[in-house]
Amino acid sequence: MGIEGLNAPSLRLILDRAHAHADDIQTGSVEPTLAGRFICSLFLEDSTRTRLSFETAARRLGAEIIRFDASTSSLSKGESLLDTAQTLIAGGAECLVMRHASSGAPAHLNAGLVRTGHAVPIVNAGDGMHEHPTQALLDVYTLERRLGTVEGKTVAIIGDINRSRVARSLTIALGTLGAHVRHVGPRAFVREGLGVPVFNDPIEGTRGADAVCFLRIQTERTGRAAYLPNTAFRALYSGSREGLIPENAIIMHPGPVNRGVELDAKTLEDPRCVVLDQVANGVPVRMAVLERALLDEWGEA
Amino acid sequence: MNTRTLITGAHVVDPSNNRDAILDVLIDGDTIAQIAPVVEAPPGTNTIDASGLVLAPAFVEIHAHLREPGGEASETIASACHAAAKGGYAHVFGMPNTTPVCDSPMGVRYVIDRAREASPVHIHPIASVTAGMSGERLTDFHALLEAGAGALSDDGLPVADAGVMRLALRCAADLGCVILDHCEDMSLTGDGVMHDGPHAHRLGLPGIPRSSEAVIALRDGLLALETGGRLHVCHVSTIDTVEAIRWLKSRGAPVTAEVSPHHLTLTEARVGDYDTHAKMKPPLCEERDRVALIEALEDGTLDCIATDHAPHAPGLKAQLFDRAPFGIIGLETAFSVCHTAFVETGRWTLGQLIAWMTHKPSEVVGQRWGRLDIGAPADLVLLDASERFTLTQGHLGSKSVNCPWLGEDLVGRPVATIVGGRVAYGEGAFA
Questions:
Q1: CA B76 to CA B171: how far, in whole Å?
Q2: pLDDT tens-digit readout, A62-85
Q3: How far does the CA of residue B310 sit from the closest CA of chain A (Å)?
Q4: Is residue A301 situated within a structural domain?
Q5: Does the model's ipTM exceed the 0.90 cut?
């Protein structure tokens, strides 16, 4: 349900499995380890790539995945999340892939299901501003594909970190695996006290980094007036600023990109940019995560 | 109780009268008739042996939410009275943020009348400062006080406009009443749901900056200094607000302040993994804040303890953290929690704790309650200060159970509450 609480061997197991799946996808030899299993995706907040990626991952492993549509369901009639989940489980769902706008929603639902004796594995596909574990895993995976390992490497995360579940999960994952993480951004977007060096000066913050991970400006979550107008942000903190991205650094963004704000078209086409790789890499990573949720013989460290 | 009751052998702790000894207390009808080492009971007196118990003035609560009218699923005036009686309280002030808001003499009378039917516990409605708590037009303070309002407050939805607050304090100065001020700048709080610190960041929850409370406490304190209007700062939660009050008092501002048992004993860490029983306003802050609050109470910067008893029906508190309402109940547990944390550990004397729960809050609202004066109403509480128990729902009296201490081991508990000579709650010989 979160990267927090997973130790390095647990992360390693998922990542190694993902690397193996990627090879199998290349050679067309994916083993349907989840054949006949029934997964339900419960997305109560908009998503394109995460949901598609989970659905593709489930199907590649032979599982059936049903999409629960919040807008046409009884949830819009006021049915509670717990009631809805119990209904899905009664209908045969063996695993829930869940996205929710509230931080802590998967843990809250899990507690309710445990209390009522209907617990099934819940895979967190993003909860509020809390965590987005599979995004962090696929980002680490993407870095490993390019850099070999993340251990000892420096990753600068730049942008609206305070409100980013991606940043939170990625920071924990990279830290657990021995990478050096920096938080870079204007004062309204980053904060001290999280055990990670903070840089308000973007040039200084990205200097010498092996990878720069840009974050989406969360206009849908800030609620109030934007701190910096997009023009100012672009001038100071975007990939198009001269000298911001070190020459050999990988350029990442979890998407969706605000084109022309965090990254412009030219940077997106740069050979160092792995934004589309990140999307593609979501599938083998989520295959591994679904197996971890559903397979008894998953060798937990 | 009979017309005359003699309570013998209790350890009487009555801080305002410097009583701290084994004494007999004779109650005649609704008043205290005699307090002495040995009182000869007149014929026909009902005598109760209270050896081993502490006898103190019944507690005074100046900050509670009764929820009626409008929120009866969470609490009624009757259930709040029951909770108060179980907690040892004789006087309870009820905040006006009900539906409708208590902003009219009729609203004030309604609460008083309902309470009289329900319990011997005295309920004092607090009327709103502005009509409908909209922060715009002042209510008719004079008419509300005449109807029986004990104080004025826009608790929960504080007056944002400094000009309106200044006018309100001027009125309060003219009429000699007190404004209970929930200090919060809503524009700073924004969508925050807990203290803005590393713990909020870890949980991915929007934070409430500490400035939200202090800027309004300082602003309204300056307005009190300027106008002479009596201001009482509710539920102080941060070291910043403590410093602001300390400075205001040093300037001679007519300001008092309260602190809650939860801010004295808990920190943001209590939120754990999204426990809504640690979600309240102002939010639980950091250890340095908690320490500052304890020291400020001890040195007189803060005047008294008040619980901010805020019942919410179980379904409401079972929601996701960011959606659940703010607040916890506190009437039943205030004494036990503070006694366990501070008296049992030797930091405070029993007399100190009792003072902060009796005559000190009473003085904030300009009353002479919370003292065992001869001829005064027989409002008293009997405490078993040595009882060790695990807090369960059975100890609560509220209609709601949103209490963060359920399951905790506590020491010391009220076992009987007598209000105006009538038993409002009683166990054992007082049942």
A1: 31
A2: 999 999 877 666 665 656 889 999
A3: 23
A4: no
A5: no
